[in-house]
Known about the structure:
Elements: E1 6-10, H1 19-27, E2 32-34, H2 49-62, E3 66-69, H3 81-101, E4 105-108, E5 111-112, H4 116-133, E6 140-144, E7 152-153, H5 157-166, E8 173-178, H6 179-184, H7 192-205, E9 211-216, E10 218-219, E11 230-231, H8 244-247, E12 256-259, H9 266-274
Parallel strand pairs: 1-2, 1-12, 2-3, 3-4, 4-6, 6-8, 8-9, 9-12
Antiparallel strand pairs: 5-7, 10-11
Helix pairs in contact: 1-2, 3-4, 4-5
Bound molecules: zinc ion (2 copies).
The site of one zinc ion has 5 residues, from α6.
Amino acid sequence: MAKGILIGAHESVAGGLFKAFARAEEHGAASIQIFTKNARGWKSKPLTEEDVEAFRAEAARARIPSLSHASYLINLGSEDAGIRAKSLDALEDELLRCDALGVPLLVVHPGTHGVRDRGLALVAEALGEVRRRQPRSPTRILLENTAGQGSSLGCRFEDLAAILDALGRPGWLGVCLDTCHLFASGFDLRTPRGYEETLDRFATLVGLEQVRAFHLNDCKGPLGCRVDRHEDIGKGQLGAKAFEPLVNDGRFAGLPAVLETEEGSQIENLAALRALVH
Ligand SMILES: [Zn+2]
Ligand SMILES: [Zn+2]
């Protein structure tokens, strides 16, 4: 078992889903995140048997834990019947793709809604419905904390707790914490003390056991900016030092933790993070 988190990266699937593993090895990533379909579209080509076989073979060979990030179009908080139906279908499809590929974790943004409590109830209801359609799916859905842009839900720990509680905190749900989004939504991770205070608050409201993955991103904007813009590690307002407590935190040993910075920046960013590991 690794001493700390598995420092990895989001990797491109250009040329085939299975290619993400070779890219991860080239970049020195110990975990990977992929999109199993176009992240900015509703439609996806069904996976072929060849896609699945090639991916599973590479996963077994490379032994790099993977997670998937769902399409950005999905809005489980939508009040619009059409968007809601499309979002549920799309999440179900994402889940089935993960199941087929053997990807154990699927990250999704909670969604947006102008009225927080109503939105959170809709998100919980939508997740419950997708689970009812696929009750035996082995894939765990992870709610990602958001930057708090516009009317996005999930920037407060109370939001994540409300969704988990509404569903009875089932084993098929969990949380993915994004460092940029934490900082953008007002959690000051720049000092070890700030890191501990943030995690203490998370432990009280949500529970550390709910965390199953991390997104490791520096943040372009200042503390509390509520703008979701990632930056290379050490080049943003968080700074490299902010990542030191997390990469060494034994409580999260073995969890995948992936960069979501520009394609082509992985080697440099992974090196910056690894330099912080004691
Ligand atoms: Zn995300
Ligand atoms: Zn982001």
